[in-house]
Write a structure and sequence with these properties.
The protein is α/β, with parallel strands linked by helices and about 160 residues long. It has four helices and ten strands.
Length: about 160
């Protein structure tokens, strides 16, 4: 099984998750951190109460692959859709381990990014350099919607990312 994980503390991730539920993820008999789990095909949709960048406890999950649905934050506040992998080339200022990279799910990230480049809205599309945690031993990638609160609330962009 595979998992898409988002945080209850993240507006963008929650909007992406809501779009996934509208696209056919169904409630199953299971909970994680007191929250219901949804499923579609080989994918589970899981909500955590933790900030994703500090969620090393997710390594205990029994999944072959994880996609993190999250917000992207940038000082420029440019509307952005991005994908990347966890890890730190230097200090671990935002979770993870210092000078340690996590395992990428390169094919999934590549496939998502190839769909993202077809976006017709105002958002720029980019692959982002790895720069935060958590340290995850499960192959994974991040999809992010940003880069300020206005964009995190953009349900059309969240719906597009859910399609990707």
């Amino acid at each position: 099984m595979k998992a898409i994980i988002y945080s209850s503390k993240d507006i963008a991730g929650t909007n992406i998750a809501e779009a996934l539920i509208e696209k056919g993820f169904e409630l199953i008999d299971g909970v994680f951190e007191g929250n219901p789990i949804y499923e579609k095909g080989v994918w589970n949709l899981i909500q955590t109460e933790s900030e994703l960048v500090y969620a090393e406890h997710l390594n205990k999950l029994d999944y072959n692959e994880i996609i993190f649905a999250s917000r992207h934050k940038a000082a420029s506040e440019k509307p952005t859709l991005t994908a990347h992998v966890c890890g730190n080339f230097g200090p671990a200022d935002l979770g993870g381990l210092q000078k340690t990279l996590s395992m990428a799910s390169a094919n999934t990230m590549s496939n998502i990014f190839r769909e993202m480049v077809d976006y017709k809205g105002e958002h720029e599309v980019s692959l982002e350099v790895t720069h935060h945690g958590p340290f995850i031993e499960i192959p994974h990638c991040w999809i992010e919607l940003g880069s300020c609160e206005k964009h995190w609330k953009d349900k059309q962009a969240a719906d597009f990312l859910a399609d990707c």
